[in-house]
Amino acid sequence: MNNLYHSQQEKIIHQSSDEYGKLVIKEHGQIRSLYFDDEKKQSAIFTPYPSVLVLQYTQAMMSAFLFKAMPNRILLLGLGGGGLVHFLLKAAPQAKIEVVELRHEVIELSKTYFKLPIFNKRLSVHCCDALLFVHDNIINNSQKYDMIFVDVFDKDGPSKINKDVNFIFSCKALLNNSGVVAFNLWNRRIDHYPSLYKRYNEIFSENIIDLKFGRVNSNILLFGFSSDHMLDELNGLGLEAQKLKKRFGIDFPYFLSQIQKQNFSFLSRIKKFLFKKPVHN
Known about the structure:
Distance between the termini: 44 Å
Shape: globular
Oligomer: single chain
Order of helices and strands: EEEEHEHEHEHEEEHEHEEHHHH
CATH class: Alpha Beta
CATH superfamily: Vaccinia Virus protein VP39
CATH topology: Rossmann fold
Number of domains: 1
Structural class: alpha/beta
Radius of gyration: 18 Å
Helix content: 25-40%
Strand content: 25-35%
């Protein structure tokens, strides 16, 4: 898989376990990585500059900035090593960032080994279940978010809540009128991604795009939007992609071109038509 498995050159610098499984931290040069169950790389940071995103899928997730360049409230479901947190704190200096992480041990390891800036006033970290968090926020009519990043994993891969209809609906409901949510998924055979795509497509009323990193056994990013007009602007984002590349040092023009190619080519339009929810009179 894309950046998911460990290098033989890495050395183990920490091992521990909690009720959810094994946690391993490995290091190679200045790259420090967190593994679940000693096999699947969950996250990584460049230790001299933690805000530099190391993994390609995390860089690509930031394509959300193409649609919302100046977010004020950001929700991150799944902490891992905190690479996304470091980036977002620097990339969106005006934003308040909330993080939800199920495993207390992961939070502690992020503070100890991954320089998580726990005392930053713009950052709030909640140790709780992501499904319960989004559900409670809706019940309590909490303030909504401009961006939501869903990067929730366990030792077997993406968490099963990514397939939960209530969870997906709740993430959509927590978006502002021009909000975007990015889900990090996989496309192994056991993930049944075509069926999952159809489910997301229906819930988001066809206001979704995805970005694949390979035909099988790789990450897939799925972006959902709260309003129709956001996808209408996609073809005019070339200049914004160039600006973001200069601002963040990430190749947004490449990710934009892949999004356009994968979602708006003739064949991809046929795919979306086949997955389109039927209209009943």
